[in-house]
Amino acid sequence: MHKPLLAAEVSEPGPQPGLGGPVIGIIGSGDFSRSLAARLVASGFRVAVGSRAPGRVSRAAFPAGAELCSQGEAAQRADRLLFVAVYPEHYHSLLGLSQQLQGKVLVDVSNASSLSRQEQSNAERLAQLFPQSSVVKGFNVLSAWALQAGACDGNRQVPICSDEADSKVAVLQLARRLGFSPVDVGGLCAARGVEEAPLVLFPSWGRPILLTFLLFLFFYGYNFLRHILLPFLDQGENNFYQLPLVTVNDTLPAVALVTLALVYLPGLVAAVFQLARGTKYKRFPGWLDGWLCSRKQLGLLSFLCAGLHAVYSMCLTLRSAAGYTLLNTAYHQVKAGVENSWVEQLVWRSDLYLSCGILGLGILALLAVTSLPSVGNALNWREFTFVQSGLGYAALTLSIMHTLFFGWDFAFFPSAYRYYLPPVYLLALILPCTVLVGRVFLALPCLMFRLAKIRRGWECTRHRPPNHLEPEATGDV
Ligand SMILES: Cc1cc2nc3c(=O)[nH]c(=O)nc-3n(C[C@H](O)[C@H](O)[C@H](O)COP(=O)(O)OP(=O)(O)OC[C@H]3O[C@@H](n4cnc5c(N)ncnc54)[C@H](O)[C@@H]3O)c2cc1C
Ligand SMILES: NC(=O)c1ccc[n+]([C@@H]2O[C@H](COP(=O)([O-])OP(=O)(O)OC[C@H]3O[C@@H](n4cnc5c(N)ncnc54)[C@H](OP(=O)(O)O)[C@@H]3O)[C@@H](O)[C@H]2O)c1
Ligand code: HEM
User: Fold this and answer.
1) Residue 89 to residues 93, 282, 445: CA-CA distances in angstroms?
2) pLDDT, tens digit, for every residue of 282-306?
3) Which residue range or ranges hold the Ferric oxidoreductase domain (predicted)?
4) In this predicted model, what pLDDT tens digit does every residue of 417-438 receive, in sequence order?
C-alpha cells in the first residue's frame, strides 16, 4: 500500500509520490475512511483522519502516511478537500466545525438508506447545514473493498455532481488520480440519483423477467395439462416422470420463440404508428416506449431460454427413459419382423429442424455478444443495426423454420389435437409468424418508402407547421 499506484508521468496537477502532496481530510474513522485513506496515501497524498475520539481508534488500521487527529484538526489541516465519511444521520453533530470547514470542499460519500424517494438528498442537506463550504457528491458507488482493491480491480465509473464548478473539477481530478473513471453528472440536484445508484436492483429487468416467467408458467401449465394430467385422468397413463426434463424442454423453446417475437413486434407497432400519423415527431404512447426500451432484456432472456433448451435437447437421449423406449421399440420391431425402420422423410425432418435450430441459436449468440457494451461500442450505427435488426430477423426466421420442420405435417392430423388442445409448438408459432408477416408487409415498396421518408423527417400536411416549405415546391418529395 505504500507503493504509489499511479505512474509518475500522469500529467494532471496533484502530488508527486514522496514529495508530500496536499493534505486531504477525512471526517470519520470507519470502514470507508480506512479504505479511502489507504488509497489516498498509496496515490501520494497526505491524509488527516478526523475522529471524535482519536485515542480510541486503532492506529494499525490506517496506513503510515495517514495522521489520526480530532475532527477539528482534520478540518483545519485539510488544504481544500475533506471527505465526510460519517452517516448522514450524524451530519448535524459536525455543526461545531462550521468555522474550520468554511471555504473547504466537502465530499459527501453517503448512500441513500432506502429507495423511498426522500424530499432532499443527503448531499443537499449537507450543503444546507454548511452554506460556507461547497459540497460535492461522489465516491459513494465505491465500496470500501473496491477502494482498497487497487487501481486495476477497482477501476470503475464514479458519478460526481456539484453546483460549484471549481470544486467539482478538483474532485473529478482526484478521482482520476486514484485510478477511477469520474463522470460529471451535473449539479447537486442529481445527487439523489447518485445516492440511490448502489441500491437499485437491475432496474430495467423487472418487467422482462416477469413477462418471461409468466410465459414459462403458462406453457409449463399447458404442457402439464396436455401431456400429463389429462392422459392420467383419462387413461391412467403415468407420465409424471416427464415433469423435470421433458416438460421443461417443451416449455423453454416455446418461451424463447414467443419472447424473441416480442423483441421484434414493437419495432413493427412503432412503424404502424408512424405510418398512421404521418410523422415521427409525435411521441409514442408510454407502453410502447417502455416496450421498445425492454427489447435488449427480452432478447437476452430469449437467448437464455433457447440456450437452455439446446442443452436440455442434447441430454434427451442420455435419459434412462429414452434408453428403455428405444429398447422396447426395438423389441416390438423384432417381434413384428420389421428389418429396417428407416423412414426417409423423418430423417430429413430431424436433420432440417436441428440444423435450423443450431443456426438460429448461433445467430442469437452473436446478438448477445454485440449487446456487451465493450463490443457494441466498437461497432458503428450501421453495423450494430445490421447485427441487431438484420441478423435478429434471420434468427427469428430460422427459429420459426426449426419449429415448423419439427412440427412437420403432424399438425394436420386429428391426433395432434388430443383433448381438443393444439400442440404447444402451434401456439408458440402464432406471434412469431405474425411478426414475420408484418415485416414482409412493411417491406412493400409503397409502405417502405413512405416509412423511410417519415423516419428522415418528412411529415404529412396535417402535421406541418404553417410556414413549412412544401417539399413539392423544392422538388424534394
Ligand atoms: C440476444 C439479443 C441481444 C440484444 N441486444 C440488444 C442490445 O444490446 N441493444 C438493443 O438496443 N437491442 C438489443 N436487442 C433487441 C433487438 O435486437 C434490437 O432492439 C433491434 O434493433 C430491433 O430491431 P427492429 O428492426 O425491430 O427495430 P429497430 O430498427 O431498432 O427500430 C424500428 C424503428 O422503431 C423506431 N424506434 C425504435 N426505438 C425507438 C425509441 N426508443 N423511441 C422512438 N422510436 C424508436 C425507430 O424509428 C426505428 O427505426 C437484442 C436482441 C437479442 C435477441
Ligand atoms: N463502507 C462502505 O463500503 C461504504 C461505501 C460507500 C459509501 N459509504 C458511506 O460512507 C459513510 C461511512 O460509512 P462507513 O462504512 O465507513 O461507516 P462506519 O464504519 O460505521 O463509520 C462511521 C464513522 O462515522 C464516525 N462518526 C462521526 N460522528 C458520528 C456520530 N455522531 N455517531 C456515530 N459515528 C460518528 C465514526 O468515527 P469516529 O468514532 O472516529 O468519529 C464512525 O467510525 C456512510 O455515509 C456510508 O453510506 C460507505
Ligand atoms: C442448438 C440449437 C437447438 C437444438 C439442438 C434444438 C433441438 C430441439 C429438439 C431436439 C426439439 C424437439 C424436442 C422434443 O422432442 O420435444 C426442439 C423443439 C423445439 N425447438 Fe429447438 N433446438 C435448438 C434451438 C432452438 C431455438 C433457437 C429455438 C427458438 C428460439 C427453438 C425452438 C423450438 C421449439 C418452439 C420447439 C418445439 C417444442 C415443442 O413443441 O415440444 N429451438 N428443438
Assistant:
1) 9, 46, 65
2) 999 999 999 999 999 999 999 999 9
3) 255-396
4) 999 999 999 999 999 999 999 9
pLDDT band at 60 (very low <50, low <70, confident <90, very high): very high
pLDDT band at 77 (very low <50, low <70, confident <90, very high): very high
Question: With a 6 A CB cut-off, is 32 part of the ligand 2 pocket?
Answer: yes
- Closest residue by Cα to residue 158 from 172, 169, 170: 172
Maximum Cα–Cα distance across the chain:
103
For a ligand 3 pocket test, name from 312, 346, 367, 403 the mutation site with the most ligand atoms within 8 angstroms of its C-beta: 403
Rounded distance from Cα 37 to ligand 1 centre (Å): 45
Asked whether the predicted pLDDT for residue 474 surpasses 90, the reply is no
Q: Which atom of ligand 1 is nearest to the CA of 265?
A: 26
217 CA from centroid of ligand 3 (Å): 18
Grid cell in block for residue 23: 493534505
Does residue 226 contact residue 424 with C-beta atoms inside 8 Å? yes
| 8 Å CB contact between 266 and 298 | no
Distance of CA 74 to the CA centre of its chain: 41
Q: What is the per-residue pLDDT across 238-267, written as a single tens digit (0 to 9) for each?
A: 999 999 999 999 999 999 999 999 999 999
* CB 402 near ligand 3, within 6 Å: yes
The ligand 1 atom at the shortest distance from the C-alpha of residue 370 is: 8
Ligand at minimal distance from the CA of 282 is 1
Read off the pLDDT band of 52 (50, 70, 90). very high
Count other Cβ atoms within 10 Å, centred on residue 381: 7
Sorted by sequence, the CB contacts under 8 Å of residue 156 that are 6+ apart come out as 141, 142, 146, 180, 181
Residue 26 confidence (pLDDT) above 90: yes
Residue 32 CA: which ligand 2 atom is closest? 16
Asked if 249 and 227 count as a contact pair (C-beta separation under 8 A), the reply is: no
